[in-house]
Each structure stands twice: as structure tokens, then as C-alpha cells.
Amino acid sequence: AMGVRGEAGSNVNETAAGEFLDMYNTEAQRVFSANAAVSWAFNTNITDENRQKSIQSDLQTDLWRQNMSHQAAVFNTSGFDPDMQRQFYKIKDIGTAALEDVAKLEELNSVLAQMSTIYSTARVCLTKTDCLPLDPDITREFEKSRNEERLRRLWVGWRDESGKKMRQLYTQFVDLSNEAVKTLGYADTGDYWRSKYETETFEQDVASLFEELKPFYTELHAFVRRRLKAQYGDSVFPASGHIPAHLLGNMWAQQWNSVQNLLMPYPDQPILDVTAEMVKQEYTAERIFHVADDFFASLGLTPMPQEFWNGSMLEKPQDGREVVCHASAWDFYNGIDFRVKQCTEVTMEHFSTAHHEMGHIEYFLQYKHQPVVYRGGANAGFHEAVGDVISLSVETPKHLHDIGLLPTLVENNEADTNFLMAMALQKIAFLPFGYLIDQWRWSVFRGQTHPSDYNKAWWKLRCELQGVSPPVARTEDDFDPGAKFHIPNNTPYIRYFVSFVLQFQFHKALCDAAGHTGPLHTCDIFNSTEAGTKLGEMLSMGSSKVWTEPFQALTNQTRMSAQPLMDYFQPLMTFLQKENGQDKGWQPDCPNLDPISSAGQASLHYLLTAL
Length: 611
Ligand SMILES: C[C@H](N[C@H](C(=O)O)[C@@H]1CCCN1C(=O)[C@@H](N)CC(=O)O)C(=O)N1CCC[C@H]1C(=O)O
Ligand SMILES: [Zn+2]
Hints:
It is a single chain. By secondary structure, this protein is mostly helical. It contains 23 helices and six strands. A two-stranded antiparallel ribbon has the order 1-2. It has a two-stranded parallel ribbon with strand order 3-6. A two-stranded antiparallel sheet has the order 4-5. A hairpin with a 6-residue loop joins strand 4 (about 330) and strand 5 (about 340). Helix 9 (about 200-230) runs parallel beside helix 22 (about 565-580). About 45% of the residues are buried. Mean pLDDT is about 95; it is low at about 1-10. The ligand C[C@H](N[C@H](C(=O)O)[C@@H]1CCCN1C(=O)[C@@H](N)CC(=O)O)C(=O)N1CCC[C@H]1C(=O)O binds near residues 254, 327, 356 and 357.
């Protein structure tokens, strides 16, 4: 039901406003669910016809939102109760839908649909007849291959077939998006995206969190670099201290679990990877999702409804259809349809992703009773954290053993260090990547990074913050940001950095609620209805309040803090500091990769060390 409104009739304006909100809420469910259905059809069957239908549907939805915004603007909300004021604010907060020029609005939607198509249908041809899609083929190569030359060809090929083909489209998108949000009074698109966090100091807050976490990342980077040098030979690594991006088991070097078998501190102890065990037990995609569903049910939260199982696409279709394989969770905004679309493979990585996506669905289910304007995360970082919080329990050796995916449970210091390393390759490795994507985009939206510097600015951030360098020289003919899903698909990214900090604060609060004692990294909240009740209370609020309120209700804190994350990984950091000594760090600037100068670079390096 709608929240209780002020005294009926106390103000004709307020009564009319209440009726307007009821109308909006009814109409929005109709408009948004129709749009979701058309968008789903396009994402699960990429054809020209479905793309055109999706562009038209997005355009009509934007125009409807524009119309509602104009109707809402008629009301003088100053005397309204805070909840009504918040609902009116959100109805008017329509982002790029504010673009008044319909032709430009259609162009904006068309440009986005074209970039999404380029990304999701790109294939890399290593021979005339052998053309590989990203999912599952190239991803599998990055997970399994240790052939540096083959990895380099796939790394370059993927960027040639995806990002390189979008540069002009992205430049058009930036201009149209900025023009649109300026209509609403925002300085640029980044200003609009950051406003969603409702925190004056948001940009500084994430910057200081990143600074606070840098030492942890530097220790992990040093250890991984040393082990990869042993595997591939020093000659592949630039003297500047960077790790070439194609050697970290992931197309974007964003998480490094796929090469963890090279990176275990104690190789003779068990390695936390249940892929082989799932394959041996003939796990299916559906069974992976049922494992995630069982966990949410064990907390007393809402199990997946039948519509979820009927409507989701949990495997890549084998009928030749082109689909958007990048996993996603869908709210159809009708209180009934909630789906996941994932080209699931039976691997540990997909097991984790399934929990991540189901976390979104659980959030959708918990707030489905809210007015449509409140059906969102308290902030976007909350939405990204739900599934991952569950995974922090599921991926413990003890829990994996309990569900039969880790036959022998070895509990000693060395196995514990291996476990923390596996988690660090997922969580610590990600931090600079999660942080830098929107540093680049905010600088582009602000006009600090011009199209003529797109790639230079991208690699400046990658080399300086992530200590990762390109395996071959890059130029402004390339557009490497476009090779990462969230750029062509225009999904903000700082939400994942925020999530990776918040999820440890949530994990700590839920583990306290579950009565856990001992180190945070051994906590498993499975079957704790106390934890489930507290989590449910936070999730069911959606975005009805500023995020600090639900946050405080769960964690008794009012600010993001890296402390629980650092406490969780402290034992590993102690180990790494001892291992690394002073052999850590990298030069901020990218190594010079031009063939001539890199030879010169090596001899110069030799001379300097020889002197
Ligand atoms: C695999 C995951 N796919 C996203 C996600 O689930 O967030 C998809 C695509 C973009 C938004 N999205 C959604 O599903 C939203 N509809 C969720 C919502 O309702 O807000 C993803 O992109 N991840 C996970 C870890 C880091 C990042 C990456 O892989 O780089
Ligand atoms: Zn997500």
C-alpha cells in the first residue's frame, strides 16, 4: 500500500497530489513492464527488427517520463510531508529522458542500442573460419590458456572487434547525454550519476577509501607479479614494474581468480576452486541457481517465484540466436516478473556470478511492495553488494564442504592463507579497476578528457592506479574503454567499488547478528534467520530513504568504512608483507612499448643497474 499521507483534505493541493502519485504508480508499472519486455526480447534475440522495437520502446518510455515530470512540476510540494516530497523529486529526476528534442532523444537511444549490439555480437577471427565470441570461447581461453602469444592475440583482437568500432558512437553519446542532464541543471552526466548517492562528499569519500586500500593492493600486486614472472619469464614484463594486462586470467584484468593455481601461497594445500567438483557432480546451470536460492531461503528471505524459473535465460541458447551474454538481473516492475539472463557455464566464476545476480533479484522481491519510484537500491552500491554478501558465506571452505562441493575440509593456517588469497584475487584485485572506470568517464563527461585523448587517459589510469600495462602499444585509433561491457551499455561503475567496501560492513553486521565468533573470514550466516531478518528489513526499504538510514539500521554506522574489509584480509597482508619485503610497487607512467625504444629501454635499464 502507499505510505500513509498527511491529513486528507488538509490541502486540496495535497489530495490532488496523492491522486497524482497513485496514477503515476499504476501507469509506471504498465509502461515500465512493457518496456522491460521489449528490451528483454532484444537482449535475448539481437536482430535489426528487435533493436528497432527496443529503440522505439525506450523512446516512448522516455517521453512518458518527460510528460509525468512536467505534470509533477505543477504541484507546489513545499508543504507536503517528506515522503511525498521525495516521491515527487524522484518522478522529476528523469536523467537523459529530459532531452526535449525528440530527434536527439531517438538518436541517443539508437546510439546506445548500436554500441550494445557491437559489443555483444563481436567475434575474434584467429583464422578465416575460426571466429570466436567472447562468451564462452574467449573467456574460457583467458581462464585456461598459459600461452602468452595466443592470449596477446585474443586481447588485441577483442579490442579491435569491440571498442575500436565504437569510438565515434561513444563521442556522440557523451554529447547527447550531457545536453540532456544539463536540462535538469546538472553540470554534466557524471554530476548527475554522483547525485544519486545523495552525499555531498561522495567523490572525496571514494577517493580516500581508495587511498586507504592502496597498500593492500600493492602487496597483492607484488606477489602476483613475482609468481607470473616465474611462469612467463622476466622478458615479458616491462622494467616499469607493471603486469601486462593479458596475463591475469581475465579479459580486463579486473579479477584474477582464473590464474589462482599459479598464485597459491601453499600449493600443496587445497586450492579453493569447486569447478572440477561441480563438473564431476554433473552440475547444471539451473542447479547452480538453486544452490543460491536455498541460501536466501535459509535466511527466511523470499525464494525465487515460479515466474523466475519460467522466464529466466540461464544458459546460452544453442539455436544460433545472438544474445547479450553478459549476465544481468531484470525487474519487470510489475511485482510478478523477475529474471536473470546468464550464459552460465559450470565454473566457480559463474557460481559466484549466479549469487551476484540472484542478490539483485532478492532485492527486487524485498521492495516490490514499494511505490515504483522507490524500487531501487538505497544506493546503487547496496544493490551490487547483496549477492556478494551471501557469497562471502557460501565461498567459505566450511560452507562449500557442507554443500558437498569441497570433499576434504582441511583446516590449518596454510589452507587458511590459501583461502584468503583466493578471496583477495576476487576482492582486493578488483579495487583499482572498480575505482578507475568512472574516474575515466567522469573526466570525459566533465570535458577534461577530449576524444583525442580517450585512450591515453584510459591507460594513464590503468598504469598508475592498477599497475597493469597493455601487452602491445596502444594509439588513439583504439578505444579500449569500449571493450568493457559497462561503457557501451552505459552502466555506471563506481557502484561496484562502493559495493566491495560496503559488503564487508554488511557481512560484519550480519555475522554479529548471527552470533558468529572468531575471524570475519570464517563466518557463514547460512540458516541464520536473525541475520536474514535484519537484511530483509534493510532491503525492503528500497530507495525510500537516504541510504545512511537503512545503512545505520543494519550496521550501526553512518559512513562507508574500509575497516571490516581490511580486518578480513589482515592475516593475508601480514603474510604478503613478509614475502614481498621491498620488492613491490610500479612507476606511475606506462612503459614505452614502441619496439625500438623498448630494446633501448632494456639496455638503458641494464646500464643504470650496472653503474
Ligand atoms: C556480471 C554483472 N552484470 C551486471 C550486474 O549484475 O551488476 C549487469 C550488467 C550491468 C548492470 N547489471 C545488472 O544486472 C543490473 N540490472 C542490476 C541492477 O538491477 O542494478 C557485472 O557486470 N559485474 C558483477 C561484478 C562486477 C561487474 C563486472 O562483471 O564488471
Ligand atoms: Zn550487479
